[in-house]
């Protein structure tokens, strides 16, 4: 069979009798532990946090080794972008402060406040949520949401 395939007999026997080294066995155990830790933390943790957790579980591994195994497993942490507003500050300076930090009211619809929140989603990018709140009833009166 070796002559048909053009392979030396020593090569055939070396590959057939090959057993895993201690390091390869450790790497397999490490990969299982990395996958478990990654899943337990919903894919948010990266190599430094996984390294810290595995150190507490008595694994003696370096951060670089965990990074290499995570690359082999195609695992990466999920990062959430912070929104950087690029608003014009002149607009805010021109507006008058009507409430003057007096948030108490005597009746419904006497005072209303609004806010805009920026939410980053993986699928749609930045989404904007605008809401209007009645200060007396503490209920949201209106909302508007759009994606960029």
Automatic annotation (TrEMBL):
Domain of life: Bacteria
Organism: Clostridium frigidicarnis
Domain HTH-like: 26-83
Pfam families documented for this protein: HTH_21 (PF13276)
Cited InterPro entries: HTH-like_dom, RNaseH-like_sf, Transposase_IS3/IS150/IS904
Transmembrane region(s): none
Name of this chain's protein: HTH-like domain-containing protein
């Amino acid at each position: 069979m070796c002559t048909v395939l053009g392979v030396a007999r020593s090569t055939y026997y070396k590959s057939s009798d090959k057993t895993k080294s201690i390091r390869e066995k450790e790497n397999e155990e490490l990969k299982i532990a990395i996958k478990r830790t990654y899943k337990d933390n919903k894919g948010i943790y990266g190599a430094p946090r996984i390294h810290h957790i595995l150190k507490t579980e008595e694994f003696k591994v370096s951060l670089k080794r965990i990074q290499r195994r995570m690359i082999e497993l195609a695992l990466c942490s999920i990062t959430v972008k912070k929104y950087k507003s690029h608003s014009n500050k002149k607009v805010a300076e021109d507006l008058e402060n009507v409430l003057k930090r007096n948030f108490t009211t005597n009746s419904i619809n006497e005072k209303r406040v609004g806010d805009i929140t920026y939410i980053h989603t993986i699928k749609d990018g930045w989404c904007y949520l605008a809401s209007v709140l009645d200060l007396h009833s503490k209920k949201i009166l209106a909302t508007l949401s759009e994606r960029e």
